[in-house]
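Lab notebook: predicted structure, single chain.

Context: the supervisor wants predicted structures on file for every construct in the current expression panel, including those that have not yet been purified. This is the next one on the list. No modifications to the sequence; it matches the entry in the shared construct table.
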Amino acid sequence: MEVDRQRVEIALRQAVHTPDVYLSEIASHLISAGGKRLRPVLSLVASQVMDDNDVSDNAVQGGISCELVHLGSLYHDDVMDESTTRRGVETVNAKWGNLQAILAGDFLLARASEIAASLGNEIAGLLARTIGRLCEGQIEELRHTYNVARPVESYLNSIEGKTASLYSTAARIGGLVVGYEPRIVDALTEYGLAYGHVFQIVDDILDITATDEELGKPAGHDMVEGVYTLPVLATLAAGGPAAAELTALLGKPLNQAECEKVLEIVRANGGVANAIGRARAYVARAEAACDAFPDTAASRAMRSATSVLLSSVE
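Prediction complete. Output recorded below exactly as produced.
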């Protein structure tokens, strides 16, 4: 897998290289900052799930098309959030400005679409629909900013669009490029969707439970931005004095003291446990999807991945 990861890194850098040195630098900024490359890795593993075959160039290209969509969305997210750091480096908007960040994000989405088109009409259409789902998920989140009455269903719909849909697409592409039968492709799609839900719920739990040092950013950032995630919503839904105190604090921007108080309330009143319980249900869905695959190294890795991910917050 390490050799294949290197293939992904090389392909990513090649994908954003242009004759314009300035644009190439901006477009490759977060690639150079590193990352786990979970989406392309999922495409690679999905392409091996039936027989542990060698990873094809098409699987690598399909994976990087998903990674480029992810990176483009990060460029846009950082503009919306006015973020100044990501992955330990300055954000593109902080270093070059909002206009450059927006256009470079658009460029990454365009390159992703071009690569997907080279893999055939089905994958091109799939990636286009996924970009639409990302936008729908982000809009769903924005329309509930600072809303203490945000329904849990809104949160789940948002993370399915913003996060899970791209993991689902990455896994589906891995199956499509090697020609797996529809039953297997659909199982990979379901797996990716469930994995993406676990990933985002765990990330939202860590925003509550981890330290600033562990996160590389201030804890409770989502709440400060008015984004109320599952641990917060579960605490509010439980009612009682904790929910009442939380309701009085939320619904507006938070200062540092208020943020620390909100974190204290959510950490102490069952919201995190509720979120972990929800994530366990998606772990079960991911494991059930793996029942469609034979016993290969790739399928074993996929089966264990969601529980390992959840164990980081249990």
